Amino acid sequence: xxxxxxxxGGGPAGMACALRLAQLIDAYNASGVDxxxxxxxxxxLEKAREVGQHCLSGALLDPRSMRELLPGFEKxxxxxxxxxxxxVWFLTKNGQRKFPIVPPPLEDxxxxxxSLNKFVKWMGQKVEEAGITVFTGFAGSEVLWAxxxxxxxxxRVDGVRTDDKGVDKDGQPKANFxxxxxxRAKVTILAEGTRGNCAKEVIGRLGLEDPEHAQTYGLGVKExxxxxxxxxxKGEVIYTLGYxxxxxxxxxxxxxxxxxxxxSVGYVTGLDYEDPRTDPHHVFQSFKEHPFARRILDGxxxxxxxxxxxxYGGWLTMPRIYGNGWMLLGDSASFLNSQxxxxxxxxxxxxxxxxxxxxxxxLSGDSSAERLQGYKARVDTSWIHEELWRVRNFHQxxxxxxxxxxxxxxIQQVMRGSILGPDRKNHAGYTRMIHLDExxxxxxxxxxxxxxxxxxxxxxxxxxxxxxHSGTRHDEDQPSHLVVExxxxxxxxxxxxxxxxxxxxxxxxxxxxxxxxxxxxxxxPAKELxxxxxxxxxxxxxDIMDPYQIIQWVPxxxxxxxxxxxx
Length: 567
Ligand code: SF4
What we know:
Elements: E1 2-8, H1 12-30, E2 42-46, E3 60-61, H2 64-69, E4 81-82, E5 85-91, E6 96-98, E7 112-113, H3 116-129, E8 133-136, E9 140-145, E10 157-162, E11 165-167, E12 173-178, E13 182-190, H4 197-205, E14 217-226, E15 236-242, E16 251-259, E17 262-270, H5 280-289, H6 291-297, E18 301-311, E19 322-323, E20 326-328, H7 344-364, H8 369-380, H9 383-389, H10 402-414, H11 463-468, E21 482-484, H12 487-491, H13 493-497, H14 502-505, E22 511-516, E23 526-531, H15 541-545, E24 551-553
Parallel strand pairs: 1-2, 1-13, 2-8, 5-15, 13-20
Antiparallel strand pairs: 3-7, 4-7, 5-6, 9-10, 10-13, 11-12, 14-17, 14-18, 15-16, 16-17, 19-20, 21-24, 22-23
Helix pairs in contact: 1-3, 1-7, 7-8
The protein binds iron/sulfur cluster (SF4).
């Protein structure tokens, strides 16, 4: 299929890009030109069954970019509440201390509490009303290259291939087999969210990641809770640092008041911890057992669950975001402010700027890197740069623990992003994981973050109960979309060195080490990896955090995955 523009990923960045492009084309055509531009061959590919189903965030929206995209959007967009009250707390095992002031980056007055799922669904309607086709249930499964080059100035992206439908678990075609489409596009825009598989292919093949500034990530685990009225006000925002993480790890919790009886509650764990037994799902469950959270949730009911990784690296870890025929947007390109814990407004703005560049490319018939460089130039002169440059050293400051990070953040706040010396390097989080034999004697403070949470079924839950509340569904008769390059590493080296951390970092109980018939060796029963891929909530943590980097997340058959209704 020939296309003018293909946008891979129908999240906030992809939808904003499609909408802005439609606006520009409409304005151009309305200006009385002889050769109007068509919107017919502009497509958005979305891997979920319905728009928004795979969208998950806290979520707070800084409205700045939406006001530029659709002035007055507040009148019709699904907004749950305007933020009217914030507080920040530090939690110890049994205690809590309120920060005397809310640090300026966490001031949220004027921002909106939203469900990203509902918001993106609404954006999708706007895109379709504007005359752009959204294909749901189609993932971009691989990049189509025009040549064999791996030189970013030479290689050209020609489009993407969508996933094959109707393939059985052995890779054989079923009766309903349909091969994927090859969408050959003048401009291919990758907006797949964190660690997008096509974006990863482009970044890897063209060597776009700066080795001194590797991307770093966090994993957010979230639940929606119905609670008795009077505990958290509609529009109230609460952040916590500390328990159950120790000062050696990076992370914290949020509670957002959606209504007087519904809250979004979650915990982000930095994916750069040292102990391979760390379980971010357990971290979140332990947070809920703290008296501070218990007072909010006790007697309430958990109604939804989900998990998503997010890029923490910021400006310095941003790869090159354009090339011959392609651009990268949103979380796929590191547009997230980890100090403010916000990325939706940046994703939307990046989509708008990419749309302006794609529009110029369509008008001129030129989608070379030289032309698409305009996207980077736009980003560099926009408020995105202003916002992200100021916090470019933020996350690296926490590499040696919370205290150093807080001091470093204070210095950067005064020095507008600078630190005393050159910018700090970013190290890939998985490289910080240490071997089991280096961990040392048991540290009782770490218990609530190590190993799986069992759950009491009321306040806390095991992972399978939570996955049930994510609405996740995949056809079982298809190849696993978690591809492990060498299973011998899992049953050998990884058992000894790291104790198979995939069992712990996956928030959906996908990876399980099961005993197999022993070969009689004295070392105890042999184990092998079982992959329960149908549980996968598409958070991409395994692709990011596996210490050997041998797990690849590839798209399952389109339509499979979580259903984040209302999340
Ligand atoms: Fe996330 Fe990977 Fe587990 Fe899927 S298998 S839920 S992508 S960690």
